Amino acid sequence: MIYEFEGMIPVVHESAFVHPQAAVTGNVTIGRDVYVGPGAAIRGDWGGIVIEDGCNVQESCTIHVFPGALVVLEEAAHVGHGAVIHGARLGRNVLIGMNAVVMDRAHVGAGSIVGALTFVPADMMIPERKVVVGNPARVVKDVSDEMLAWKTEGTRLYQGLPARLHAELRAREPLRETTLEQEALRASQRAIYRTWNETRKE
Protein backbone atom coordinates (compact mmCIF):
# COMPACT_ATOMS: atom_id res chain seq x y z
CA MET A 1 0.00 0.00 0.00
CA ILE A 2 1.22 3.46 -0.91
CA TYR A 3 -0.04 6.24 1.37
CA GLU A 4 -0.08 10.00 0.98
CA PHE A 5 0.59 11.81 4.25
CA GLU A 6 0.11 15.55 4.79
CA GLY A 7 0.33 16.12 1.04
CA MET A 8 3.53 14.08 0.59
CA ILE A 9 3.15 11.22 -1.87
CA PRO A 10 5.84 8.52 -2.22
CA VAL A 11 7.74 8.47 -5.52
CA VAL A 12 8.32 4.93 -6.79
CA HIS A 13 10.13 4.22 -10.06
CA GLU A 14 8.02 2.13 -12.42
CA SER A 15 10.64 -0.63 -12.52
CA ALA A 16 10.61 -1.06 -8.73
CA PHE A 17 8.40 -3.67 -7.08
CA VAL A 18 6.67 -2.81 -3.83
CA HIS A 19 4.66 -5.77 -2.55
CA PRO A 20 0.97 -5.00 -1.96
CA GLN A 21 1.39 -6.07 1.67
CA ALA A 22 4.18 -3.54 2.29
CA ALA A 23 3.35 -0.02 3.57
CA VAL A 24 5.11 3.01 2.09
CA THR A 25 4.10 6.35 3.58
CA GLY A 26 4.78 10.00 2.81
CA ASN A 27 8.25 11.41 2.12
CA VAL A 28 9.77 8.35 0.44
CA THR A 29 11.64 8.04 -2.86
CA ILE A 30 12.26 4.56 -4.30
CA GLY A 31 14.58 4.15 -7.27
CA ARG A 32 14.99 1.84 -10.22
CA ASP A 33 14.89 -1.97 -9.80
CA VAL A 34 14.24 -1.78 -6.04
CA TYR A 35 12.55 -4.71 -4.31
CA VAL A 36 10.36 -4.12 -1.23
CA GLY A 37 9.00 -7.30 0.34
CA PRO A 38 5.71 -8.05 2.08
CA GLY A 39 5.41 -6.74 5.60
CA ALA A 40 8.01 -4.01 5.11
CA ALA A 41 7.13 -0.63 6.64
CA ILE A 42 8.82 2.42 5.10
CA ARG A 43 7.55 5.42 7.05
CA GLY A 44 8.34 8.85 5.71
CA ASP A 45 5.87 10.51 8.06
CA TRP A 46 8.32 12.58 10.16
CA GLY A 47 11.37 12.71 7.89
CA GLY A 48 12.62 11.61 4.50
CA ILE A 49 13.64 8.20 3.19
CA VAL A 50 15.62 7.74 -0.03
CA ILE A 51 16.13 4.23 -1.40
CA GLU A 52 18.46 4.44 -4.39
CA ASP A 53 18.60 2.23 -7.48
CA GLY A 54 19.09 -1.50 -7.09
CA CYS A 55 18.43 -1.73 -3.34
CA ASN A 56 16.29 -4.34 -1.67
CA VAL A 57 14.29 -4.09 1.54
CA GLN A 58 13.19 -7.58 2.42
CA GLU A 59 10.23 -8.99 4.31
CA SER A 60 9.24 -7.41 7.67
CA CYS A 61 11.90 -4.68 7.56
CA THR A 62 11.23 -1.28 9.13
CA ILE A 63 12.71 1.99 7.91
CA HIS A 64 11.91 5.12 9.93
CA VAL A 65 13.51 8.34 11.15
CA PHE A 66 13.28 11.07 13.79
CA PRO A 67 11.49 14.30 12.79
CA GLY A 68 13.32 16.32 10.16
CA ALA A 69 16.03 13.73 9.59
CA LEU A 70 16.83 11.62 6.52
CA VAL A 71 17.49 7.93 5.91
CA VAL A 72 19.49 7.06 2.79
CA LEU A 73 20.08 3.63 1.32
CA GLU A 74 22.72 4.17 -1.35
CA GLU A 75 22.78 2.18 -4.57
CA ALA A 76 22.61 -1.62 -4.20
CA ALA A 77 22.20 -1.61 -0.41
CA HIS A 78 20.80 -4.98 0.68
CA VAL A 79 18.62 -5.10 3.82
CA GLY A 80 17.89 -8.62 5.08
CA HIS A 81 14.65 -10.00 6.48
CA GLY A 82 13.39 -8.29 9.62
CA ALA A 83 16.11 -5.62 9.86
CA VAL A 84 15.41 -2.14 11.29
CA ILE A 85 17.05 0.97 9.83
CA HIS A 86 16.28 4.05 11.94
CA GLY A 87 17.72 7.37 10.86
CA ALA A 88 20.90 5.82 9.45
CA ARG A 89 22.80 5.96 6.18
CA LEU A 90 23.80 2.79 4.36
CA GLY A 91 26.63 3.14 1.87
CA ARG A 92 26.75 1.70 -1.60
CA ASN A 93 26.59 -2.10 -1.87
CA VAL A 94 26.34 -2.83 1.87
CA LEU A 95 24.67 -5.90 3.35
CA ILE A 96 22.57 -5.63 6.50
CA GLY A 97 21.94 -9.09 7.93
CA MET A 98 18.63 -10.50 9.08
CA ASN A 99 17.11 -8.88 12.20
CA ALA A 100 20.00 -6.42 12.55
CA VAL A 101 19.28 -2.92 13.89
CA VAL A 102 21.08 0.20 12.62
CA MET A 103 20.34 3.29 14.70
CA ASP A 104 20.19 7.04 14.20
CA ARG A 105 23.05 8.88 12.48
CA ALA A 106 25.03 5.66 12.13
CA HIS A 107 26.84 5.36 8.81
CA VAL A 108 27.65 1.98 7.32
CA GLY A 109 30.51 2.45 4.86
CA ALA A 110 30.34 1.20 1.28
CA GLY A 111 30.87 -2.52 0.81
CA SER A 112 30.51 -3.34 4.50
CA ILE A 113 28.62 -6.33 5.90
CA VAL A 114 26.62 -6.11 9.13
CA GLY A 115 25.93 -9.57 10.53
CA ALA A 116 22.53 -10.97 11.44
CA LEU A 117 21.19 -9.83 14.85
CA THR A 118 23.85 -7.11 15.11
CA PHE A 119 23.01 -3.86 16.93
CA VAL A 120 24.70 -0.81 15.42
CA PRO A 121 24.32 2.01 17.97
CA ALA A 122 23.53 5.63 17.19
CA ASP A 123 26.38 7.68 15.71
CA MET A 124 28.61 4.68 14.94
CA MET A 125 30.78 5.28 11.88
CA ILE A 126 31.68 2.02 10.14
CA PRO A 127 34.48 2.42 7.58
CA GLU A 128 34.22 0.98 4.08
CA ARG A 129 34.50 -2.78 3.56
CA LYS A 130 34.32 -3.96 7.17
CA VAL A 131 32.54 -6.96 8.70
CA VAL A 132 30.61 -5.90 11.78
CA VAL A 133 28.93 -8.19 14.34
CA GLY A 134 27.62 -8.21 17.90
CA ASN A 135 25.62 -6.17 20.41
CA PRO A 136 26.93 -3.54 20.47
CA ALA A 137 28.45 -3.83 17.02
CA ARG A 138 32.20 -4.16 16.60
CA VAL A 139 34.40 -4.41 13.53
CA VAL A 140 35.95 -7.89 13.34
CA LYS A 141 37.68 -7.96 9.94
CA ASP A 142 37.85 -6.55 6.44
CA VAL A 143 35.52 -7.56 3.62
CA SER A 144 37.64 -9.49 1.15
CA ASP A 145 37.28 -9.16 -2.61
CA GLU A 146 35.79 -12.64 -2.65
CA MET A 147 33.24 -11.79 0.02
CA LEU A 148 32.24 -8.55 -1.72
CA ALA A 149 31.79 -10.40 -5.02
CA TRP A 150 29.55 -12.95 -3.25
CA LYS A 151 27.44 -10.16 -1.75
CA THR A 152 27.18 -8.32 -5.07
CA GLU A 153 26.01 -11.49 -6.82
CA GLY A 154 23.27 -11.98 -4.23
CA THR A 155 22.09 -8.40 -4.58
CA ARG A 156 22.04 -8.82 -8.36
CA LEU A 157 19.45 -11.59 -7.91
CA TYR A 158 17.22 -9.15 -6.06
CA GLN A 159 17.76 -6.48 -8.72
CA GLY A 160 16.30 -8.87 -11.29
CA LEU A 161 13.38 -9.89 -9.08
CA PRO A 162 11.13 -6.82 -9.57
CA ALA A 163 10.77 -7.42 -13.32
CA ARG A 164 9.97 -11.08 -12.73
CA LEU A 165 7.36 -10.20 -10.12
CA HIS A 166 5.73 -7.58 -12.35
CA ALA A 167 5.46 -10.20 -15.08
CA GLU A 168 4.50 -13.30 -13.11
CA LEU A 169 3.13 -12.57 -9.62
CA ARG A 170 -0.62 -13.03 -9.31
CA ALA A 171 -3.02 -13.87 -6.51
CA ARG A 172 -4.47 -17.38 -6.82
CA GLU A 173 -6.54 -19.88 -4.91
CA PRO A 174 -4.30 -22.73 -3.70
CA LEU A 175 -4.24 -26.13 -5.35
CA ARG A 176 -5.70 -28.88 -3.18
CA GLU A 177 -3.14 -31.36 -4.45
CA THR A 178 -0.09 -31.07 -6.65
CA THR A 179 -0.06 -31.83 -10.37
CA LEU A 180 2.62 -33.28 -12.64
CA GLU A 181 3.06 -29.83 -14.19
CA GLN A 182 3.57 -28.29 -10.74
CA GLU A 183 6.03 -31.00 -9.76
CA ALA A 184 8.06 -30.32 -12.89
CA LEU A 185 8.06 -26.57 -12.23
CA ARG A 186 9.16 -27.04 -8.63
CA ALA A 187 11.91 -29.44 -9.64
CA SER A 188 13.23 -26.84 -12.09
CA GLN A 189 14.27 -24.42 -9.32
CA ARG A 190 18.07 -24.55 -9.25
CA ALA A 191 20.69 -23.65 -6.68
CA ILE A 192 22.04 -20.63 -8.55
CA TYR A 193 23.33 -18.93 -5.38
CA ARG A 194 24.77 -20.38 -2.18
CA THR A 195 25.42 -19.24 1.35
CA TRP A 196 28.81 -17.77 2.21
CA ASN A 197 29.68 -20.86 4.28
CA GLU A 198 28.92 -23.15 1.34
CA THR A 199 31.22 -21.17 -0.94
CA ARG A 200 34.05 -21.42 1.62
CA LYS A 201 33.86 -25.23 1.72
CA GLU A 202 34.95 -25.54 -1.91
Automatic annotation (TrEMBL):
<dbReference type="InterPro" id="IPR050484">
    <property type="entry name" value="Transf_Hexapept/Carb_Anhydrase"/>
</dbReference>
<dbReference type="InterPro" id="IPR001451">
    <property type="entry name" value="Hexapep"/>
</dbReference>
<dbReference type="InterPro" id="IPR011004">
    <property type="entry name" value="Trimer_LpxA-like_sf"/>
</dbReference>
<dbReference type="GO" id="GO:0016740">
    <property type="term" value="F:transferase activity"/>
</dbReference>
<protein>
    <submittedName>
        <fullName>Transferase hexapeptide repeat containing protein</fullName>
    </submittedName>
</protein>
<keyword id="KW-0808">Transferase</keyword>
<dbReference type="Pfam" id="PF00132">
    <property type="entry name" value="Hexapep"/>
</dbReference>
